[in-house]
Amino acid sequence: MNSELKIEVSGIVGTQEMNISTGELARQAHGSVVVQYGETIVLGTATMGKPMSPDADFLPLLVEYDEKFYAAGKIKGSRFMKREGKPHDDAILTARLIDRSIRPLFPKGMINDVQVVLTVLSYDGVNDPDVLAMIAACGALMTSGIPWEGPLGATRVGIIEGVYVINPTMEQRAKSTLDLLLAGTSKDISMLEAGAMEIPESAVLDAVEAGQKGIGSVVTLLSQLQEKVGVAAREGIYAKKNEEHIARIEGLCVPLLRSKLALSKGKDDIAQAERDTVAGVLEQLSEAEKEEISEHEVRSIIHIAHGKVTRDRVLEEDARSDGRALNQVRPITVNAGILPRAHGTGLFRRGDTQVLTALTLGGPDDALIVDTIRSEAKKRYIHYYNFPAFSVGEIRPSRGPGRREIGHGALAERALVAVLPEYEHWPYTMLLVSEVLESNGSSSMASVCGSSLALMDAGVPIARPVAGIAMGLMSDGKTTYKVITDIAGMEDEKGDMDFKVAGTEIGITALQMDIKVTGLTRDILSRALEQARDARIHILGEMNKVLDKPRAELSKYAPRIHTMRISVEKIGDLIGPKGKNINEIIDQTGASISVEDDGLVSIVTNDGNAMELAKKMVHDLTREIKAGDRFEGKVVRIMDFGAFVQLLPNVDGLVHISQFRDERVESVSDVVQIGDVISVVVLEVDALGRINLSHKAAKK
Fold first, then answer.
1. Of 30, 74, 155, 479, which sees the most CB atoms within 10 A?
2. CB-based contact 602:594 (threshold 8 Å)
3. Using the 8-state DSSP alphabet, how is residue 372 labeled?
4. Cis peptide before 151 (omega within 30 of 0)
5. Structural domain contains residue 1
6. Same domain? 566 vs 441
């Protein structure tokens, strides 16, 4: 490749032109492309190094996605720190999407260090950079010579008024009932992720089909670019394998594994079967063989063989290691309301996976402020997922959430969005935390179930309960395949697919799929969705036995919120100069008060008396005074022609001297003094906003 020459291709993808180029930026990276769609531009680079260790047995792939505020013409919000630091959660989620898309296409056994970096250079507020970053990653790898079995493309699909739209704009996505991200080719899908508004399975299948057409356009462009560049292949380094050792150990272990797994019923039995097999194989090795084949190598070969045996038993016998049928969900137990001080709790167990979700309710001011290149927004529904080491019987220090925890938390969060109440009717901030207490597959979907239970236990008026299930696939790589419901253990680790599906009895609310083989057909996807629906309905039935709708009352420890709408013109009156009025209400009542730009006022407090006082004070500051209204007001100023009476804070009206008595009054001070409280009625509010009052009319 001539490094001084910019090489580019372009074509229509969806409704806009996409331009992909190389040779101009980041020329010292092994592969570098720039993808532009509208005025959104993403730079993708790929670099390969030597293995971390010559004895490594995995691919240390690192994917970094970086959004810079300059891309949107913004300066970071904090007055004290302008340098952008660690990536925010949305950036981490995008990096995970890219990692999950490209990782399966690296050759098996390759152990080189590989880093793929995506940098958003420009964002136009219309076209989301995440899809472009996925395309840029694929393009960087394809032009790098790094061993990678591309091409691969990506696209987004929305459903707007029944029409499938490729790469919808940000405005269109706000109206869409589906937000589907796809990676693959025009024939195969390798990754998908979606949030949806309870759509049917058939709509998902049609959206995938529409997305593959968009992917086909992207793949064509990437292939054209690769051909123009003329990439020289780089040599990868692969994990050492001793085929003789593998054949010897597999010959001994496979019969043992088959016989022992046939008797297993759960996670502990399956793990013990592998340990017993290791012990049995070591007993059969001669002393000379033990000198040549280490125990570590024996364990590694047997663990890999365990996955093969699990696959073969499913394909040949419809037999699973825990004895279940292929479409059978593990035993389920459900509980709710078990933590007295949390505002809502859900405890969900499926087999050896157990998740406890706790919900805390807060006011509008407790919402999370999310500041990204897209916008600065408030997030009122938040879900965090924690996966401690003890949940799988291991020991490791806790250093905060990793990418996996952030990803699983976001998936479970997305699954409930479709059933949440509208902000105007339910202005609470909802913070859920899912603690994985035990894990043997699909803890993220257990978190969906736990979250649904916690919300209902707290009295949050969700539309319907939501449940989730993880589906798997075992295939021979050709025409034979089996779809598995509720995958666990080795089915998850060594299977060909991890397909998480969440939804209600009506339809799907979230999807996430990773697949390790090519050839995912519509028939396979349809079968998986059908089995997932059956499992979801079953799980919802088990949940409904404990809690089938939101509780009628909130926890006594949860804050109460009263909302009222005021005229937008009255917002200034409520807040007052430099916040004087609203701070006075807060100081007197102890309530928290938030005011939206559209005039929605939320009062948050646990104290009933404070709530009533705060409501009255807000009402008094913002009410519209009209003729006929009656007040008990304090005389605040006396003039020769009448007296001014305070009706509301900062609102005075005039009682003319003629409006005190039917008979003539010589002097105002003859009938009232400053500080007197008198009854008045509003005669009129004139064109200038002046309020004319009558005392004598109020006495009649």
1. 155
2. yes
3. -
4. yes
5. no
6. no
643-662 pLDDT per residue, tens? 999 988 778 999 999 999 98
Q: Give 4's pLDDT tier (boundaries 50, 70, 90).
A: low
CATH code, 262: 1.10.10
CATH number (domain holding residue 139): 3.30.230.70
pLDDT at 509: 98
Cα dihedral 128, 134, 140, 146 in deg (nearest 10): 170
Single out the residue in 273, 293, 317 at which a domain terminates. Answer: 317
573 is in an annotated binding site: no
User: pLDDT category, 2, cuts 50, 70, 90?
Assistant: very low
Tens-digit pLDDT profile for residues 184-222: 987 788 899 999 999 999 999 999 999 999 999 999 999
Assess whether 493 and 575 both reside in one domain. Answer: no
Does 372 share its domain with 490? Answer: yes
H or E segment to which residue 287 belongs: helix 287-292
Question: Is 498 labelled as part of a ligand binding site?
Answer: yes
Residues 393 and 523 in one domain: yes
- How far, in Å, CA of 684 to CA of 682, rounded? 6
Give the model's confidence band at 264: pLDDT under 50 very low, under 70 low, under 90 confident, else very high. Answer: confident
Least confident of 81-85, 110-114, 380-384, 557-561: 81-85
Model pLDDT, residue 1: 43
Q: Report the pLDDT value the prediction gives residue 620, as an integer from 0 to 100.
A: 86
- Answer for the pair 203, 113: CB distance below 8 angstroms, yes or no: no
Determine the Cα–Cα distance for residues 586 and 588; give it in Å rounded to an integer: 6
Q: Say yes or no to pLDDT of 384 above 50.
A: yes
CA distance linking residue 123 with residue 573, whole number of Å: 39
In a domain, 12, yes or no: yes
Same domain for 580 and 468: no
Number of folded domains that form the chain? 5
Task: Give DSSP secondary structure letters for 215-260.
Answer: HHHHHHHHHHHHHHHTPPPPPP-B----HHHHHHHHHHHHHHHHHH
Nearest to 527 by CA among 475, 483, 487, 478: 483
Amino acid code (one letter) for 512: Q
Mean pLDDT of 470-486: 92
Residue type present at position 681: V
Q: What is the pLDDT of residues 127-180, one digit of tens each?
A: 999 999 999 999 999 999 999 998 999 999 999 999 999 999 999 999 999 999
* Residue tagged 């253990």 (tokens): 489
Q: pLDDT band for position 623 (50/70/90)? A: confident
Any domain includes 2 = no
Last residue of a domain, one of 572, 587, 622: 622
CA distance 317 to 338: 42
Residues 167 and 19: their CA atoms lie apart, in Å, by 15
Is there a domain that residue 236 lies in?
Answer: no
pLDDT band at 519 (very low <50, low <70, confident <90, very high): low
pLDDT in tens, 216-230: 999 999 999 999 999
**Which residues does 230 contact at the CB level (< 8 Å), separation at least 6?**
1
One domain, residues 479 and 614: no
Q: For residues 530 and 567, what is the distance between their CA atoms, to the nearest angstrom? A: 50
Sign of the torsion formed by the C-alpha atoms of 92, 93, 97 and 100: positive
647 in Cβ contact with 653 (< 8 Å): yes
- Tokens coding 524: 């396979």
Q: Are residues 346 and 305 in the same domain?
A: no
* Domain enclosing residue 657, as ranges: 630-694
Q: State the Cα–Cα distance between residues 700 and 507, nearest whole angstrom.
A: 64
CATH of the domain at 655: 2.40.50.140
Task: End-to-end CA distance of the chain: give it in Å, rounded.
Answer: 98
130 shares its domain with 50: yes
Whose tokens are 């297993």? That residue is 264
Backbone angles phi, psi at 48, to 5 degrees: -120, 135
Picking from 665, 568, 676, 673, the residue whose alpha carbon sits closest to that of residue 624 is: 568
Q: How far is CA 610 from CA 553, 559, 599, 603, in A?
A: 20, 12, 21, 10
